Amino acid sequence: MQLATLETIRDLPAPVSRLDYRDAMAHMAAAVNIVTTDGPAGRAGFTATAVCSVSDEPPTLLVCLNRSASVHAVFAAHQALCVNTLCDDQRALSNLFGGKTDMAERFAAAHWTTAVTGAPLLEGAAVSFDCRISHSTSVGTHDILYCEVLAVRQRDAADALVYFGRNYHGLPGAAC
What percent of the chain has pLDDT over 90? Predict the structure, then answer.
């Protein structure tokens, strides 16, 4: 692989605008997740679509979290989280965790258990990944949290909730 030279970089067009980028990203379907944590700094959670697999050895996924988010300090303090992938019938919960609703009200709207890390696992989620944050890096406005998966809980069959075209869509599930 050849690295770009300074001359080649100077010839590149101007970066894509924020609006053009956001419009283009609306054409990428993504699973809807509620990411949770709990510990000495409190209980917190937020809705995220910026979650993906990194490696299966060790099992690792990544979660992107805006550094200006009200929950950022809580997640940084705990270094553990759970990614709860939502089913189609959990749209209202996604909206609740995606807004400015009080944390106690968010968590009161569903049933939760815990696993290895103590982070809240959503009862009825399609799948829950209980993780420790192994490291993070900052890019632009966000921190990329690399999360080693310590435990997994999944349903036998579940309809998936995805976000595409700035709207929720349900995808029929199949037996696992």
Answer: 77
Contact present, 171 and 88 (Cβ < 8 Å)? yes
Phi, psi at 63, each rounded to 5°: -130, 130
Yes or no: say if 134 and 147 are a contact pair by the CB < 8 Å rule. yes
* 25 domain residue, yes or no: no
How many Cα atoms occupy the beta-carbon half-sphere of 140 within 13 Å? Answer: 6
Q: How many domains does the chain have?
A: 1
Give the span between the Cα atoms of 93 and 33, in whole angstroms.
10
- pLDDT at residue 13, as a whole number: 81
Which residues have C-beta within 8 Å of that of residue 129, sequence separation ≥ 6?
61, 82, 83, 85, 147, 149, 151, 152
The DSSP code for 22 is H
Tell me whether residue 18 is exposed, middle or buried, using C-beta atoms within 10 angstroms of its C-beta: 0 to 12, 13 to 18, 19 or more.
Answer: exposed
Whole-structure pTM value: 0.89
For residue 83, is it within any domain? Answer: yes
CATH number at residue 154: 2.30.110.10
Unique residue bearing structure tokens 């080693």: 148
Distance CA 78, CA 8 (A): 43
